[in-house]
Design goal:
Two copies of one chain form a homodimer.
Chain A lengths: L5 E5 L3 H12 L4 E5 L2 H11 L3 E5 L7 H9 L6 E5 L4 H9 L4 E4 L4 H22 L4 E4 L2 E4 L4 E4 L2 E3 L3 H12 L4 E3 H9 L8 H14 L9 E4 L3 E4 L2
Helix pairs in contact in A: 2-3, 6-8
Chain A binds a DNA duplex (30 and 30 nucleotides) through helix 6 and helix 8.
DNA sequence: AAAAAACTTGACGATTTTTTCACGGCCTTG
DNA sequence: CAAGGCCGTGAAAAAATCGTCAAGTTTTTT
């Protein structure tokens, strides 16, 4: 299923960093470590973490600056971790776009609960943000958002595997996808399937989509290589 | 800017309530007061506040129950205010859908900053949601505001879960919602439910809504994937 | 405290989907 | 032109999924 979510920990003190990393990892998240602000920023841009834990007391740049810079290009949820309990700091951080502010010392469970809360917010957002994407070509339309395939306006029923296949091809329209690639993509990397099963599924799909399955219009066979969908 | 935003304060101790109300009002919010859980719930349903400040230590109902009941029908941001610093409480409240947890004593500025943060989240959400007030299709009408379902004008009684299911589907009419998504949405992210329970509920719903449950008109099954409601 | 309603769980047949198997056509190659 | 590889197709076998009923448990109402 979906791969584990990544959390970027920006923290200069090794002990605390390790402590947090342990908590995070033992709860099925992937952890990324940065020991200063610059490193944190670059890891953020390169790895696109799902959440950031940011210590305000960093050696190089001010933690608040890091927050501002992150917010200038990303909406990733940020939880501030700080030893400072001064109200002014909290207010400033929250108003700069931090999603939460937690003061040391804190318990592991509380940290995890606040991580879950922040993730929840961001999932709700991203669920709604995803603008609809479609494949559309000469009467055939695939609405990936609705998981709906229509041909000349008429709804076409595809089974799970058929739909996965068509979407995979449509999302790579114009490109040849090799048998191996497709098999791994649909049946997973460990399945021991040969491409006989692919042939059967393609035949079924063509029967549903193509006017004349013998002379395909949408999905072409590249003999010995794979399949390609019309761009 | 539209009219001022309303904050519902559910707090039994008069002094603290007054303190909070003062803070809130002096910052251009409208304040609503409830001195116990039941009153809070009814004010919540009648006034649709933009945010709720909920004290956990209430005299009548358990504050956690109030939170659960609110979450059963609304996504309004809830900030828990509590004297109890026990981690278990915080974790439970956050996992029940609270958006933040702040411990007494707290400064006015921090409270306000956390209110702004919670509002920010909810504004982002509601901007995107642009929710329809009603679903209406061929005799079936769902009034989300009134929580009322009518078929050919006749009122249909749906249980809590049934209603949540139908409105979730209706709000995403046309889209296929996967079993996992639905389960997480209705039973929460931690429930260990398989979709057997979904099947039963769908059968019950169809018995109430569909003329011929064997050939559904409103709610379709996408085998292996999920359900979809007629757009 | 009893009764009713709502919710959950397990089992089973019917249907759909997925996989496997067998065969025939087409193209390339020797 | 015969052989061999590759692909499409039809049909049958195997597996998975779905709707439904019935029984058990919990919650809410009376």
């Amino acid at each position: 299923m979906a791969s584990r979510q990544t959390i970027l920990i920006i923290e200069d003190e090794k002990n605390i960093g390790n402590y947090i990393e342990t908590i995070v990892i033992s709860n099925q998240y992937k952890a990324l470590r940065a020991k200063n602000g610059m490193e944190g920023l670059s890891l953020c841009t390169s790895h696109h973490p799902d959440l950031i834990l940011l210590d305000l007391g960093l050696p190089d740049v001010d933690g608040m600056d890091v927050l501002k810079r992150i917010r200038s290009f990303s909406h990733v949820p940020v939880i501030i971790i700080s030893a400072r309990t001064q109200e002014r700091e909290k207010v400033e951080a929250l108003d700069q776009g931090a999603d939460d502010y937690i003061t040391k010392p804190f318990g592991s469970e509380e940290l995890l609960a606040r991580i879950r809360t922040a993730m929840r917010h961001s999932v709700q957002l991203s669920n709604l943000m995803t603008q609809e994407q479609k494949y559309s070509k000469a009467g055939l339309e695939i609405d990936f958002d609705k998981r709906l395939v229509t041909l000349e306006g008429k709804e076409i029923h595809l089974t799970q595997i058929e739909y996965k296949l068509v979407s995979l091809l449509a999302k790579n329209a114009g490109k040849v996808l090799t048998y191996d690639f497709i098999l791994k993509e649909i049946w997973g990397p460990f399945a021991d399937t040969d491409n006989q099963i692919l042939r059967v599924n393609m035949a079924n799909i063509r029967r549903k989509l193509e006017k004349n399955p013998a002379e395909p219009f949408y999905i072409f066979t590249e003999i010995g290589v794979g399949y390609r969908m019309k761009e």
